[in-house]
Amino acid sequence: MKKRALSMVAMAAAATMLVSACGSGNSGNGGDAQSVIDDKTGFASYTGEPQKGGVVEVLGGVDFSHLDPAMGSDGNVLNLYNLLYRNLTQYKYNRESGELELVGDLAEDTGTPNEDSTEWTFKLKEGVTFEDGSPITAEDVKFGFEHAFDPSLAIGLDYLQNYVKGAKDYEGVFKDPKGLDSIKVVDERTITIETNEPMADFPNVVATAPGAPFPKDKVTKVDQIQKDPISSGPYKVEEYKRGESLTLVRNENWKAETDDIRPAYPDGYKFTVSLDQNTIDQRMMSGQGDDANAVSSSTNPVVAANLAKITQDPKLSERTVQSIPSCNYFMVMNNTKEPLGDKKVRQAINWGVDKSSVVNASGGSQLADVAPNLLLPSVPQYDDTDPYATEGSKGDPEKAKAMLKEAGAENLKLTMDVRALPMWQAQAEAVQQSLKKIGIEVKLNVIDQAKFYEVLATPSQQNELAITGWCSNGWFSGEPLLGPLFDGERITKTGNLNQSQIDDPALNKALAEAAVMPDLDDKTAAYAKINEQVLDLAPVVPLVRPRPLQLAGSNVGGAFANPSKTGYIDYSQLGLLNPEG
Fold first, then answer.
1. Which of 150, 344, 413, 570 has its CA 20 to 30 A from that of 389?
2. d(CA 414, CA 441)
3. Tens digits of per-residue pLDDT, 376-415?
4. Which domain holds residue 66?
5. What are the Solute-binding protein family domain coordinates in residue numbering (predicted)?
6. Is residue 59 part of a domain?
7. What are the pLDDT digits (tens) for 450-459?
């Protein structure tokens, strides 16, 4: 696979300058650390070179949704998975050049296709093992895939299930231990995977979390990995107290020479969850004791109220990282609920939303940009097309009201699902006020942080509206950004990512045709047109692209915004500047 340059990131890297960050006034780093400061934002683009040893703490408000990589899909849990699990391929990011490269992880390279890219062959590296020291074989990779296809587990990212031949109808390895004929073990280190259609970028698909291998002879129950993870990465679970903490320690059988993606600086990680957001900020800004060795989690960036204090104190801003805009936040409109099945009603709502108020609710223009559409600036050939553009992004209430009247949909009463996080609730309240101005009364249904995605991915539990988001995890293409969200053929009873439940034949056809295009440039152009097609159908209202802040303790190095980790700090690159401090 070719290296993928991210011009926006490269430009940001070029705009940085090196300055000394002498401990930020807190104990822990010995005063010799170097932070790279972005002279455009004033925040750190890198917090210095870590050393081996010590424990990195992560402070968060949200528990991890699932420890089984088949089941989780939010950015924070995917960031965690990278510490515990390895895949055939993975993304490697060069923060200085801004280059994101897909490379072999467990595999020696990114795979070899047949002539029409319907069959891909991967050869495993020598010496890769599970946490007990047993070798990872092609049979374990096959088992890992088929474990992830079990209907009771397949509620996470659906790319593998969507593209591996026969996976959609497979009942899972526990009901059908023979497995899929499309996944063939050639020998102990070689596996061949058939796709149900030509797939030029299938190596990106096998980089997704559900592709993690598990030992076939040691996993006998469908919920086993959820309760007792088996690591193939540099760390393993020592203790998990749901709702309280997760402790990781070194996987002594992980071999650094087989892994040039994860440097594994710390001896372990301690994740503390269920903390109040302002408590996290206050602890991180103070940086006392073990908090000097901590970062705030990617689910809990700095609240807007603390922005001024950080920007006015150089010792704080030089250990604050601003995320790359790798996510779109939007309002889902459930097309199966009347009158939202009417395109004119959905378009009217798009015209009526004041996006500038959602930017303010997200912390203001320093922390968020308006999202004009559903692609991202890092996607090749991106443009900022916005068919619902208004002056100052304030919406057009009069036009929206006229369209609703024409559609016979006045004085509506709708319910909006929202995640119990401060910024998300503030965004929901801003949209609630916009819709009130066009005659729509909205009731907010606040859902527990950890369970939100699971509820939203179950169509029978959805209400009419929802505030949610979708991020790129390194695969910057229209397929991961549009396919799962708007393909009617991918609607499922659980684990459903098409949460608007739009099922438009023409759109489905366009997505199907784009997916099999062998030329990546043609594919990119096709998804640009599909983006416009989705905007016209208006199943969602694009709202904002957040650029949130995460604080790192004064003794934490290796913190930078990684586009392959939804633009947040990559946990796997962290370490302590002075492990003895």
1. 413
2. 6
3. 888 888 889 999 999 999 999 999 999 999 999 999 999 9
4. 4-83+231-315+551-576
5. 101-488
6. yes
7. 789 889 999 9
